[in-house]
Design a protein that fits this description.
Oligomer: single chain
Radius of gyration: 12 Å
Strand order of the largest sheet: 4-3-2-1-5
Structural class: alpha+beta
Number of strands: 5
Helix content: 25-40%
C-alpha cells in the first residue's frame, strides 16, 4: 500500500518537511517513489509548496494520505484558487 506522508529534513532546530509518496511498510526516512512538494512550518506564515495535481493523481491510483498531508492539500487548494 502506498502512503503520502511527510519526511522530516533539515537540522535539529530548523526542520522542514518534504511531502513524499512511499511504501507504507517502510519508515519515513527510507526510500520514496516521488516528491510532491515541501512544507516549512518555521516561516510566518508557513510555506506550503505542493503539486496538487500530482497528489490527486496518486490518490486516484490508491495512495492514502496522512492526516497532516490531507490538511496541507486542503490549504494548498484554497491558496491556489
Amino acid at each position: 500500500m502506498l502512503k503520502i506522508r511527510l519526511r522530516r529534513m533539515g537540522s535539529r532546530q530548523d526542520p522542514f518537511y518534504r511531502v513524499v509518496v512511499s511504501e507504507a511498510r517502510r519508515t519515513p526516512k527510507s526510500s520514496f517513489l516521488e516528491t510532491l512538494g515541501t512544507y516549512d512550518p518555521s516561516t510566518q506564515p508557513a510555506t506550503i509548496r505542493l503539486d496538487v495535481a500530482k497528489a490527486e493523481a496518486w490518490i486516484q491510483k490508491g495512495a492514502h494520505a496522512s492526516e497532516t498531508v490531507r490538511s496541507l492539500l486542503a490549504k494548498a487548494k484554497t491558496a491556489a484558487v
